[in-house]
Each structure stands twice: as structure tokens, then as C-alpha cells.
Amino acid sequence: MIRALKRWKYDIISLDEVCQRAVTLPQSRRFVCLTFDGAYKDLIASAYPVLAKHGVPFAVYVPTAFPDGVGDAWWLALEEVIARETRISLVVDRSERRFNLGTTSEKYQAYAFLESWMRSLPPADLSLAIRDLCKRYSLDLSALSRAALMDWSDLERLAADPLATIGSATVNYPILSNLKDGDATREITMSRAVIQSALGREVRHFAYPFGDRAAFRRQHVGIAADVGFASAASAIAGMIEAEGRTDLHALPRISWDGRRTSLRTLRVILSGVVPGR
């Protein structure tokens, strides 16, 4: 992908430069910024060597409960249980629900349903639901989370690279839409303070957890701006426009992961014809 972007004459730039270009006149060369959500260990194990080899800037958004060793990656636990079981049962909205997981299609359907349901829950109810599931199927949620996410020593290594931007993604990675405004403000502000203290560097950029239209609201955009972030990224597909036509605290992003492998598809998406599809 990096080789293709260079071949297509895209500038691969930092988040700070994104903010500069977004408010100036359009330039002849198009640009991209590579960002990574969640601070997963596979970033430093697999992606970082490639990024360093090609000498390109990148950003990682960190939810600070995870390097602190107290975060619960409930979405990974749900995925793990569904992947290894052939049937599961769980209390959903006060009723026992059973799911057959004998085929790949059934697994995908069950995950889509349960992930959507869990994302609709207040934090306390979500915690109860995922812990119930993990207890039923003997999964150590804490161990799974610690194994999947980077610790502070990993982040210190990344932070030492001038090409890396360390951004914030709240403390616990909640669905902000499910929180009271005061709780959302604390999540947004505390994570920034924790990273700055732990790494000794300014944190200028933020990403809304999960980042789709249901995950955050207009007031959270205002909070991110008010606390002093230079930018805040969504996961809503789209292109960044010049001359201030894009809200720096609701930056669009194109999702690209292992489910997409066609560079031709990537080039079409980058054209803006079918953003994010």
C-alpha cells in the first residue's frame, strides 16, 4: 500500500501537516495520513517495521486504560468466544438467547448482532454482559486485553521515533454517546493528561472511540475542541477538503484493513467517488 501511494504521487504526511493543509489553498499534490486506532501490539510487531523501513509518518490513538493494564477489550473477547465455540447462550435484554455458530456465516451474523447490542449498553451494563459471557466460556478477559494491546514500554519506543504521532482515544474506549456529558469530558481530558505525563510529550490529536455516526455526538466534537486538541478523527468515510471546509474536530477517515486487499479498490476510494465503500 505504501509503495502504491508513493507511485500514485500521494504525499504521506503527519497529522500536524494535515491540519495545516486543511486550512490552506488546495495544493497540486494529494495527501494521505496513516492512522492506527487502539494501540494494538500488532502495530509495533508487524506494521511499525514496515513504516520505519519506508520512512513514512504515522499516528496511533491510545486509550490509556490498556497500557495501564486495566482496560477490557470486550470486542476482542466477543470475537474470541464466537470464533472458538459452536454454540453460545447469553442473557440479552433480560432473556436467555442461544446462537448456533456451526458455520462461518452464523459466526459473522452472531458477532454483528451481539456487537451492536453491546455497543448500545451503558458502560456498567456492558461490563456485566461481557464478563458474564467470559465466565460462561472460560475466557480471561484481562489477560486477553493485556496480550492484545501495547504497554507503556511499547509506546515509549514508538514515541521516540520523530515520525510517530501519539494521539489520545479516551481512557476506557467507551461509546461516548452512551455517557453523560461530564463523564465524556473526563474520558477525553484524562487520557490526554495520562499520555502527556507517561511519555513527556504534548498530545495534540484525538480519535473518537469506534468513531461512526452512532459512537459520538456534536457535543463531543465541541469538547474535543474546547480542551485544546488540534484535531479529532472520526471513522466516518470521506475526504479532507482545503480552505477550512473540513471540521478539524470531525476529520473523516477511510477504513482499510485485512478484509480489503485490492489496490485498485483503494485507488477508487481515494478518488472520492465512493468514499469508504
Oligomeric state of this protein: single chain
Number of strands: 9
Structural class of the secondary structure composition?
A: alpha/beta
For the largest beta-sheet, the strand count, sense and barrel status come to: 3 strands, parallel
Task: Average the pLDDT over all residues and give the rounded result.
Answer: 94
Radius of gyration, whole Å? 19 Å
* Poorly predicted regions: none
Q: How far is it from the N-terminal to the C-terminal residue, by CA?
A: 17 Å
Instruction: Identify the overall geometry.
Output: globular
Percentage of residues in DSSP E strands:
5-15%
Topology as H/E string? HEHEEHEHEEHHHHEHEHEH
Spatial strand arrangement across the major sheet: 3-4-7
Q: Count the DSSP helices.
A: 11
Helix content: 40-55%
